[in-house]
Amino acid sequence: MQGAIVRVFMVVAAAILNHPLLSPRENASLPEQDQELIARMKEHEERLEEEQERLEREMALLDSKQQQQETEWDSDYGWYFWSTLSLVIFLTIEVCRVDLADMMEQWPVDDEDTTSSSSSRTLVLDKGVLSGFCDRCAHAVAHDNWRAREFVEGFADDLLESLRSSCDGESQMEVGDFVGVGSMFESWKVSKPLSCDLLVPFSLPEPYSFQFQPWCGASGDAVPPDMHGYGRIQVTTTRPGEAEAGVCVCGSVNLGEDVLCLLHSKTDDVPGATRSPEELLCSKNTSYLAKDRVMKWFQVSLTKAWGRISHKYEFELVFRDLYTAGALKVRFRSGKVVVVNMVPAVRLDDTDVYFVSHFPSDSGGCGSPDPYWPLSFAVYEMNLLKHVAKSLPENSCHLHCLQIATFLHRKQTGLTGKCALTNYHVKTAVLHLLLTEKRSQWGMDNVEHRLRDVLCFLQRSLQEKRLHHAVVGNRRLPAEVRVPEAFRTSAPVNLFRSLVLQSESYAHAVRHLQEMMRNAPALLQEYTPLLPNGDAFHRPHQRPPA
To answer: Which of 164, 289, 334, 343 has the fewest CB neighbours in a 10 Å radius?
Structure first.
């Protein structure tokens, strides 16, 4: 009996002494010890179970021998004693399990934080250098940006008015007023040449109309999973009785000799006749609007419109890219260049969501096959920035963080080439941080900390290959931004989805960001000269180099 009790206490003592919290750990932050700890705990647990079974057998044998000798009170006391002892043993095992589970949950987080912030911790950002950059670069170009916006808005109005005159006599297309989006209109553009992004909405004349099929709508089942963030636009007729479903009305209605049918070429007198695909706005053999057809129409129309008003201006206008509609470059006699990106778009009902033929310059999105159109939420993103700015400190640094991060990205791109990371990803990271962190911490005195947070957020997102859209599926959005409910409650859209299967592009983007963070102090120091005493040299009246 006494020997059994001694063995029980030895088992309990061994379990306590071998507890993971009492075992020495040379480096408690290394998650690679997880497997070793798990193996040790399993071994201890098996030993305890074997010892308990042996003790139970001995206890049963002793109880049978001493049953006639011991009193009823002694028997009850012994039962309570062994039950309590067994309970202690099981509690010890469970405590070990819980502690091990807690460590298993905490270590991956510590490892992730250590990995994701390793570059950001070594990133030394001098407050004086950042202040000098903001003074010389951001503040100095503000006046130039304002003048460029004023010029572009006047020129775009004149060009689109000439385009409308052309449409009235030919295609009958209805062209609306442009919508300014992107960094220039959000006041964080710093790169040269100055560029403005304009969405140019258009619509079809009666009896034609659009039926929209966004990926998250009722008819979104037809959109493939890899096309989330996209949608299709179907061309239909709206006048009842004039045409059967799928049959164009141009065969039954006299449209005149000078009117071009939007679905058929000039040589098509009746439906079903031989058609020329190059002259259609819809994909071949479908009623869905095709981006390449629309861009061809838009580029030809802009060329004709410029020909009508070119005599009024004393600058040179050229198309930067023949495969991208509306990519214009204005070159003045002084040599100054202003880039204008006019993007044909279709407005989704009465919202500020637009189907665009391609993303503007800051987005850097890859093209999509017809008939899938990417959806732009740029208007809501601009409204979100304006709304958040109301609750930020008076001299906030959120736009400066955007300017510095995109400046570094552009400089690094010049060194290592283009990558999958874009300015739009940087803006998305800033928007997420503005919605999650305390807005009182975005003062100008904290610019180096907030910039480090932005770069760390991008690095962690790249590691996870997941960067959610700032507007779509974001339940944190303030109600004042008025994002349509269907998009606000939709499943989040991963902007890094294309990197999941593109290992080479993904690796290049990771290297690009790591080198950008490593080179950041040198790039900023080079752009902001210092005086001999180490102070930043400010020249507010001198324009920064192009």
So the answer is: 334
Cα separation, 187 vs 406, in Å, equals: 13
pLDDT in tens, 160-169: 999 998 775 5
What letter represents residue 155's amino acid? F
Model confidence at 139, in pLDDT bands (50, 70, 90)?
low
Q: What is 353-386 written as a DSSP string?
A: -EEESS--TTT-PPP--TT-EEEE-HHHHHHHHH
CATH code of domain 142-356: 3.30.460.90
Point out the least confidently predicted range of 36-45, 364-373, 398-407.
Answer: 36-45
Instruction: Tell me how far CA of residue 47 lies from CA of 87, 93, 339, in angstroms.
Output: 16, 11, 75
Q: Which amino acid is at 354?
A: Y
The pTM for the full model equals 0.70
Which overall architecture, per CATH, does domain 377-527 show?
Orthogonal Bundle (1.10)
Alpha helix segments (H runs only) across 1-33: 2-17
Whether the CA torsion 362, 364, 370, 376 is positive or negative: it is negative
Q: Which of 349, 364, 368, 367 shows the shortest CA–CA distance to 487?
A: 349
Average pLDDT over residues 398-405: 93
Q: Return the HEC string of 412-438.
A: HHHHHCCCCCCHHHHHHHHHHHHHHCC
**Residue boundaries of the structural domains of the chain:** 2-107, 142-356, 377-527
Give the separation between CA 408 and CA 342, rounded to whole angstroms: 26
